[in-house]
Amino acid sequence: MSYDHTESDCLTAYTGLDPVVSLEVLSDCFLYGSYSGLIKGFNLQTGAHLMDLQGHTRTVKCMAASEPLSPEANPETLYSCSADGTIRIWDLGTGKCRGICTGHQGSVETVEYCDEEGQAHPLLFSGGEDGTVRVWNANTGDCEHTVKAHIGKVNALQRVGGIVYTCSMDGLAKAIDIEKGQLVAVYEGTSPIRCLRHHTQAATEEGQEDTHVLALGCADGRIRIYDTRTANCINTLEGHTEVVYTLNFADGFLYSTSDDGNIKHWNLESPKAEYTYNGHTDAIPCIRILPNGTFYTGSYDKSVRVWDREGVLEKLRIQRLLDDTGYVSKFNFAAKAGAGLVNRGGATTPSKSSSKGSKKGGKSAKGSKTPTKAGSRPNSAATDKTARTVKGKDQLEKETEAFAEGVCVPRGSRGG
């Protein structure tokens, strides 16, 4: 692996890796999962290789760490899920696997660690190819709850309080009360849904309302935004040309990565991206945003890159100031002329709608659809805001009945 510094928005590029499928960043190292099932760890400061975690026999789909970025987490534990149907529990102090969770039928697509006040013990949430969501005791690896959530595979999930949000290749996202075994809401994507992210933010000005939104990243490259209080679709974001792989919020802004090789920064008040980070040459299946003003992305182009998020935010703050004063600069013109801004080697130019950096070799997510050609889509900015969101009362009742029939709650077993 080589360790490079660049002068643009990309602060550091770790290159010469295997294709990066999943990523986790800790206080002193980052780890990535590969197609082979191997997990590799590297020092953040020097790029030195630290460890290999061997055990999975197929692609490592997702990883989550206990208390990531917290020095109090001792020893740090890593949870990894794989296409081999297992979740492994790793002691990062020794590099040894100290537990294996089994029970999913087929690939385990996603995993999330949760340790909140009031819980008897830390929990691990997983979603699989079998359409189920499982809840595990993160300390022992015992399965505590299983819910049949979707017809298609569960691509991503997020626990928010007592609700777990899930999304699937069946084109639906759901809000589920796991403890009660109750379906709370159903949301539609514009196509199969690859990823999601819930965001809550308190109002910053008098008269404003708090923000409660759910973002859905779809296989056709679009992102739907829902108000979770009303279940209404309030915006549809367009800019990616291929499947949206990951979504994350920071400082009220949304960040997305895609099979088109781009990272986009969105202000939810606009249907177009404010900024595009450009540097990867292949699909970007993973992102980790840090509180220090940077974020990490992993790509099939065999690199992990570190980006200057705070620097870009400062550029955008200056741009908004220029807009408010009516001063037109080259930077201002680029913002108005294109669908957002794109950085190419340090120069800011209007972004193009081409799929630069699109994948070579057809590694698109299984089940993802080919993007619709320009001109064949409806005017989504106008239609999606009035789209039916919970699929109507009858459909919600139908989904609820089907959901209830699939709920089961095994306890005290590691698999099952």
UniProtKB/TrEMBL annotation:
Keywords in alphabetical order: Repeat, Ribonucleoprotein, Ribosomal protein, WD repeat
Biased composition range(s): Basic and acidic residues: 385-401
Region: Disordered, residue numbers: 342-416
A GO-annotated cellular component: ribosome
Biased composition (Low complexity): 345-356, 365-374
Ranges occupied by WD repeats: 53-100, 101-146, 237-276, 277-308
Protein origin, superkingdom: Eukaryota
Protein name per the record: Guanine nucleotide-binding protein subunit beta-like protein
Species annotation: Eutreptiella gymnastica
